[in-house]
Amino acid sequence: MKIVMAIIKPFKLEEVREALTEIGIHGLTVTEVKGYGRQKGHTEIYRGAEYAVNFLPKLKIEVVVPSDLEAKAVDAIAAAAKTGQIGDGKIFVLNVDKAVRIRTGEADEQAL
């Protein structure tokens, strides 16, 4: 099993969710996060004053998938989240040693 973690632009969430649903992945966790990468934030003007926004709003999506769906999940997220502009995000893939569904006690891939 793998956990696929993606940091994306907030307005791309629905497209990413639909792309994952199309390949058979139905559950995901979304967290609102702030951060920056190569773009190092930006400046905004509020009431005539310019100020720096160092941490940009992003969404972190986490989905645990069977190992055989990892590549499809990564490809689906990358295609759906891409705008071609700086700040599109990143995808990380980590190993998952164990998963347990609390309600039924099912373990590992049956718990997904």
Task: Give a brief outline of the structure.
Helix content is 20%, strand content 37%. By secondary structure, the chain is an alpha+beta fold. The chain starts with a strand and ends in a 17-residue tail after the last strand.
Question: What characteristics describe this protein?
Answer:
112 residues; alpha+beta; four-stranded antiparallel beta sheet; two-stranded antiparallel sheet; 6 strands; 20% helix; elongated; Nitrogen regulatory protein P-II; nitrogen fixation
SSE layout:
Layout: E1 2-8, H1 13-22, E2 29-35, E3 42-46, E4 49-53, E5 56-65, H2 70-81, E6 89-95
Antiparallel strand pairs: 1-5, 1-6, 2-5, 3-4
Give structural notes:
By secondary structure, this protein is α+β, with helices and mostly antiparallel strands. The protein is 20% helix and 37% strand. The protein has helices at residues 13-22, 70-81; strands spanning 2-8, 29-35, 42-46, 49-53, 56-65, 89-95. Strands 2-5-1-6 form a four-stranded antiparallel beta sheet, with helices on one face. A two-stranded antiparallel ribbon has the order 3-4. Helix 1 packs antiparallel against helix 2 (70-81). The protein starts with a strand and ends in a 17-residue tail after the last strand. The model has no long low-confidence stretch (mean pLDDT 90).
